[in-house]
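Entry 14. Structure prediction run on the chain below.
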Amino acid sequence: MNDFLRARNALFRDLTFRFVVGGVAAEGKHDDLSLSIQGAYELDTGQKTIAFRVRKLIFNGYELPDTTVRDLERQVDLSINTKKLVSFLEPTELKQEEGKLTIRMKLNF
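Output returned:
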């Protein structure tokens, strides 16, 4: 995942993402700046997508407010839209474990 994100956007160059039990953790440092993001992937059954929700955003040791978190989610969309990948796949289940994200999908013909 890290290589994929870094190849597409230099913004991710100094961040390292890890799948942990129940979510995703990202940490990075550039010069004197540090950033920590804790979040999780969630099924959005209405949109039939996998949304990424930030739960906590820490910049230089300070937890940032929800308004900043939501603004980050709008600016940097880490959601997975399976319809853009293959139109007939629909996500039905997610499992977030140490080191991996498992997505169960069903076929819609």
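Helices lie at 2-8, 66-75, 82-85.
Filed with the rest of this week's runs.
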